[in-house]
Amino acid sequence: MRENLRELIKYRELLYMLAYRDIKVRYKQSVMGFLWAILMPVLIVMAGVLVRYGYVLIAGKHLEPSDIASVAVKSLPWAFLVSSIRFGCNSLVLNPNLVTKVYFPKEIFPMAAVLASLFDFLVASVALIALLLAFRIGWSVYLLWTPVLIAMMVILAAGVGMIVSAASLFFRDVKYIVEILLTFGIFFTPVFYDTSMLGAKGKWLLLNPIAPILDGLSACVALHEPPDLRWLGYSLGFGLVAILGGYVFFKHLEPAFAESI
Amino acid sequence: MEHVYKKFHKGEVFNSLRDLIPALTGRMFRQEDLSESDRREFWALRDISFEVAEGEAFGIIGHNGAGKSTMLKLLSRVMKPSRGTFQVKGRVSALIELAAGFHQDLTGRENIYLYGAILGMTRAEITAKFDDIVGFSGLEEFIDTPVKRYSSGMYARLGFSVACHVNPDVLLVDEVLSVGDWAFQRRCVERMKEVIRGGATVLFVSHNMKTVSEFCQRCLFLDRGRVLKIGPVEEVISTYLNRAQLSTLQDVSEKQALITSVRIRDEHGEGTRFQSGDKVWIDIEVTGRSLCKKLAVQFYIKDEEHQVVFNTSTERLGHGNFNLEAGEVFTCTFELSLNMTAGMFHPCVGVFRYDTQTSYDRWEPAVTIYVSHDEDVRGGVNCFPKVTRQEVHPAWEKSLTGLVSEGSGSGKLEVK
Known about the structure:
The complex is a heterodimer.
Chain A: H1 2-10, H2 12-27, H3 35-59, H4 65-91, H5 96-101, H6 108-134, H7 145-170, H8 174-185, H9 210-222, H10 229-253, H11 257-260
Helix pairs in contact in A: 2-6, 3-4, 3-6, 4-6, 4-7, 4-8, 4-9, 6-7, 7-9, 7-10, 9-10
Chain B: E1 2-9, H1 17-29, H2 34-39, E2 41-48, E3 57-62, H3 68-75, E4 83-85, E5 92-95, H4 108-118, H5 123-137, H6 152-163, E6 170-174, H7 182-197, E7 201-205, H8 209-215, E8 218-223, E9 226-232, H9 233-248, E10 257-266, E11 269-270, E12 273-275, E13 279-288, E14 292-303, E15 308-313, H10 315-319, E16 322-324, E17 329-337, E18 343-353, E19 358-363, E20 369-372, H11 401-404
């Protein structure tokens, strides 16, 4: 294990290069250029605002700027998670040459997918910050929590990414299963709604490890409240299990990659 | 490497859950048929053991599918052996497939960094060697062009240039020196020699016996996953070539006339090493198995690239043809001067009937010979050159000042 980690550190430059390649290729020869990074979050935010509008209409209230901010703040990390898992899932299968011909720690592939998605996320965050400023959401000391929460998302994405990339190398239909889970996952995750809207039963949704992180982000940024530390601890525990378990799982299967792809 | 085995599974394995799940449930209800799974196995390597000293250049030869590339994949740790262990000291780099890591949409410059990182170089290391790499590839003009616009030769050149600047302790080379044009190939060979001189251990896989014999002191002959022979490079290569010839001679029973012996000798007796310009004799023996008419013995020489460089026959040299009855033996001797430059050559012998264009038997190659020459002359033919005069003339002597004065920009040569 320690040997493996040392090797991973030795090859860190490759991680940056592969992420750079993915980013560069995505933006090269595309009409939209950097708008790509914003398109998907913008669509999610618009859908979220629409759903929110429906809620407040039924409840007989007005749509507050903080509602929109909350949806926007939760949509971006969700888009990041979806894109890192989606790219991560295909990262090994789409590079058969590198998997079969050259030796290096292969977990760099799903990790580079996460890194490239993180770049998109940061680009989109600039737009988000502009939006938050336009709505005069303001700031509080709890904003300091955001880097921690984003780091938790990254850990979770990397762990899941390693598991699905290795699994889809052996079984090609894993890709479709992951795709379905990602598509419908948004309904089981409080992106468009808050868990509090569902009353006491809403707590059950927090078992979804992404939910406490998203709720925490919404609380820190949009509502100026501290996040729920107990649930965050649960998410962190889940994230650590995912990344450690994912790493061990990946490393266990890695020797068979070249002949099974 | 000690007692290394590698097992592959033949046929299709389950590669989707959709197939696996029914298969697993099915297997729970019936005993698994072990003999069937045994039959699906295929040993790509069996009981391979060898040792390569530090700084040695070691060749691995064998026919297609002998397991050469599998061996390099094991050594480069892309695959794991099914059984056995091996140890490699130092940083390993593999020239397995050039440009495997290139991305079509990135420029040459970006791909150098990407491929360099894949091969384990750091960014600083690549930056330091960047000019050398580009200079070696000769692609300065196109370095900021996406590689998808490159020709396949340019692609391969760039790949080799990056790969050969890695400076590993152990270099694994798999049949990659045949890229680019002739000039670039020579440069690759030179570079490889430089790497070897620099103290790197090199494992060299090739079908090209010439390059193997040029680089390596020792060699391993792999046949269907087993080591057939390890030893000095020339011995192993001749075993390899003899076996190649044997495999083409399976249907002896069908043949009406057989070549039964081919020997090559010079004035000191039989041998395989000659000096350029030596006179040699080739003794050929043909045995008839049933009545054959109007036969002639062909003799031709192929170079290491299996191009025919010389061709003649008893009939074409004006000795008429001959008939053979069952049991009769025909012998003849060709006398030749080896007016070729240094290298490896394959003299070949055939029994042929010209009017019906029938080939009765053929040894290709009949033997393999190594021709050496003390002078540095290159090319195929040795014209035995001598420089009989060489001098530098003072500028005024021939009044060719127009050549060196600045006024000659028009391109005209003015002789005053």
